[in-house]
């Protein structure tokens, strides 16, 4: 019997609005190409991006973050 596939870890919080200046999603802080290719990345590639995410909000102007309650 085959085991069900392992779920893919994602930082998505269902707030999909891209900041035109930084190119980052205001919900998860991934780039559009990262979001689009997420399911094709392997676990190590996804983990590397996830490790970068905490530093990405500084690339978005604070007033924009505040609009989404992310400041």
Structure description:
By secondary structure, this protein is mostly helical. The protein has one domain. It has helices at residues 32-37, 43-52, 62-67. The radius of gyration is 14 Å and the shape is elongated. The relative contact order is 0.19. The mean pLDDT is 92.
Note the gap between the termini. 48 Å
Q: Assign an overall shape.
A: elongated
Helix content: 25-40%
What series of H and E elements makes up the topology? HHH
Q: Tell me the number of strands.
A: 0
**Averaging pLDDT over every residue, what do you get?**
92
| Helix/strand/pairing category | mainly alpha
Radius of gyration: 14 Å
Count of discrete structural domains:
1
**Helical run tally:** 3
What are the low-pLDDT stretches, counting only 5+ consecutive residues below 50? none
Largest sheet: none
Quick structural summary:
The chain is mostly helical.
What is the strand and helix layout of this fold?
Elements: H1 32-37, H2 43-52, H3 62-67
Feature tags:
mainly alpha, 71 residues, single chain, elongated
